[in-house]
Design a protein that fits this description.
4 strands, alpha/beta, 2 domains, single chain, Rossmann fold
């Protein structure tokens, strides 16, 4: 088994564990309410109690289907139209609950964050929209820059000397080649300010799991495709990037742009 497959399996096991605990907790509430329902023969609120039990039962089934939908999408990296609602619910509610529980217990946090990022990426890529290459913003963390480099690339990525000691030069050239914009940011506040200033239609962000989750939540309606960085020296020090993976994701985004434009051009020629 490869390292990637092992990490994928570990993440799913962590999510399934917390998800099952959550569903079991909801089931426990339902059993307690059911006990009171059958014990209260002529209670004036008995009908209300029954409605509440049925509502919780529906919620429990919805959670179970959501959990199965997330697991399927995480493994296949495909979004089926029939489970779109469950995936959106999972991103808004179930996964944040699992992450909060993992943070409370200080266990499996990054594993579940990786599931959140992968599901978010699948949903962002599945939505068909017209995006011009220049409206794609690539955000890189400052910790990708070699700590001994003196270039102030947070002010202008064009100042990168492309010395090869980090991956920023390669990313800059890839984005320039396709017409996208790229920037190096020093933190979440700087990233939010830059997004407000540039107003992109799509963001391709590189960061650790925690920062990606925070960024996805901060930008709101703007689609974000997250790429988890590599940390050979630990957090926030000379982090790196799988350039091949980045190029593939950038190519998919820009390829969709060019594909839509080509289809429009072909349609116009046929009309003429």
């Amino acid at each position: 088994m490869s390292a990637g497959e092992n990490k994928l399996g570990r993440s799913l096991r962590g999510f399934n564990r917390y998800g099952s605990f959550f569903i079991a907790f909801v089931l426990l509430i339902e059993l307690v309410l059911s006990y009171f329902y059958f014990m209260s023969y002529d209670h004036p609120y008995k009908r209300l109690l029954l409605n509440l039990i049925l509502l919780i039962l529906f919620f429990e089934i919805f959670l179970t289907v959501t959990m199965a939908s997330i697991s399927y999408t995480y493994r296949s990296n495909q979004v089926r139209s029939g489970i779109l609602l469950f995936l959106q619910f999972g991103l808004k509610f179930m996964l944040p609950v699992c992450i909060a529980a993992a943070e409370l217990l200080n266990s499996d946090v990054d594993d579940i964050r990786r599931i959140y990022i992968r599901i978010n990426n699948a949903l962002a890529a599945a939505v068909k929209r017209e995006i011009r290459p220049e409206q794609v913003l690539v955000l890189l963390p400052h910790c990708m820059q070699n700590k001994d480099c003196g270039s102030k690339i947070t002010e202008d990525i064009g100042r990168c000397a492309q010395c090869g000691r980090c991956r920023i030069g390669e990313v800059r050239e890839l984005t320039r080649a396709v017409g996208a914009r790229a920037a190096v940011v020093g933190g979440g506040t700087a990233a939010r300010s830059l997004v407000r200033e540039m107003r992109p239609d799509l963001i391709l962000a590189v960061a650790c799991e925690r920062e990606l989750l925070s960024g996805i939540a901060d930008v709101g309606a703007i689609p974000v495709i997250g790429i988890i960085n590599e940390r050979p020296n630990g957090y926030c020090c000379n982090t790196s990037l799988d350039v091949k993976q980045f190029a593939e994701k950038l190519g998919c985004v820009i390829g969709a742009c060019h594909s839509e434009r080509s289809e429009e051009s072909q349609t116009m020629r046929e009309c003429e």
